[in-house]
Design brief:
- The chain has 277 residues and is of the alpha/beta class.
- It folds into 2 domains: 202 residues, Rossmann fold (3-Layer(aba) Sandwich); 38 residues, no CATH class.
- 45% of the residues lie in helices and 13% in strands.
- It contains 8 helices and 7 strands.
- Strand 5, helix 5 and strand 6 form a beta-alpha-beta unit.
């Protein structure tokens, strides 16, 4: 189970006059970075909506663990974010339970590693749908309410690959660059309404997604898996260390705080110096 997160508590709702905790949707939050973000936001006082795929018993165990650890509410909605209709259902379910969506974290992501000349078209379509279009549809569904209430936080989990490129990842790099562009555009549209929109750009985190990439990259490049870790993945990060998902959760929680109210439209690297090179 995840380490307990904590930090300065977020202010409860003021504009609505309810005094209820902030409500946060985190897509792709049944494992990896998204789950750590859910723990981090629960740790600063938010009710959280988990979303993603996985074993139902394990997900229920996680949901109960969050509620017991932080005394906040946690709900799970199994929406497939590649389907705009299911994204609408995710937002509606959150509003039904918690009244409104105060924080949206667009984290869900998938990957495929292959040279562009053999890259399957259906893989391209799927990656763009989950990594980029889902963020558009979710943002479109919640931004009006946030602007009307005068408070909101949208965090898009992009990647260092939203700032730089690597070979054999055409769809992923394109989707993450698009995520950074979407972030900047929505930040400008929402800037006068108390709504901030930022992108996190992590380097390599040893998540299930990255673990899956190791043999794929080894096959694509014709090298060993050990060489992929040493010479391909961590060679990009001057620290030569994987980023922890807890670090990303902590930055996300900070960006949702009042102390970060003037940070908007930013693409925040959490990459061990990768994009400084």
């Amino acid at each position: 189970m995840h380490r307990i997160h904590g930090g300065a508590a977020l202010e409860h709702r003021e504009a609505s006059g309810s005094g209820d905790p902030r409500a946060a949707i985190i897509t792709g939050s049944t494992s990896g970075i998204g789950l750590s973000i859910a723990y981090a936001l629960a740790g600063v006082g938010c009710n959280v909506v988990l979303n993603g795929f996985g074993d139902p018993d394990e997900i229920e165990h996680i949901r109960i663990d969050i509620e017991r650890a932080f005394k906040n509410r946690a709900k799970f909605v199994a929406a497939d974010v590649s389907d705009p209709g299911q994204i609408g259902h995710l937002v509606e379910q959150t509003e039904d339970v918690f009244g409104q969506v105060d924080i949206l974290v667009n984290n869900a992501g998938i990957q495929h590693v292959e040279a562009i000349e053999t890259f399957p078209a259906e893989k391209w379509d799927a990656i763009i749908a989950v990594n980029l279009s889902a963020a558009f549809h979710a943002t479109r569904a919640v931004i009006g309410g946030m602007k009307q209430r005068g408070w909101g936080r949208i965090i898009n989990v992009a990647s260092a690959h939203g700032l730089v490129a690597s070979p054999f990842k055409s769809a992923y790099v394109a989707s993450k660059h698009g995520m950074v562009g979407l972030t900047k555009t929505v930040a400008l549209e929402a800037a006068e309404y108390g709504v901030t929109v930022n992108a996190l750009c992590p380097g390599y985190v040893l998540t299930p997604l990255v673990e899956k990439q190791i043999p794929e990259t080894a096959a694509a490049r014709g090298i060993s898996e050990a060489s992929v870790v040493r010479d391909v993945i961590l060679s990009a990060q001057p620290t030569r260390k994987f980023i922890s998902d807890e670090e990303i959760g902590a930055v996300c929680a900070f960006l949702c705080s009042d102390a970060a109210r003037s940070i908007t439209g930013a693409a925040v690297p959490i990459d061990g110096g990768w994009t400084a090179q």
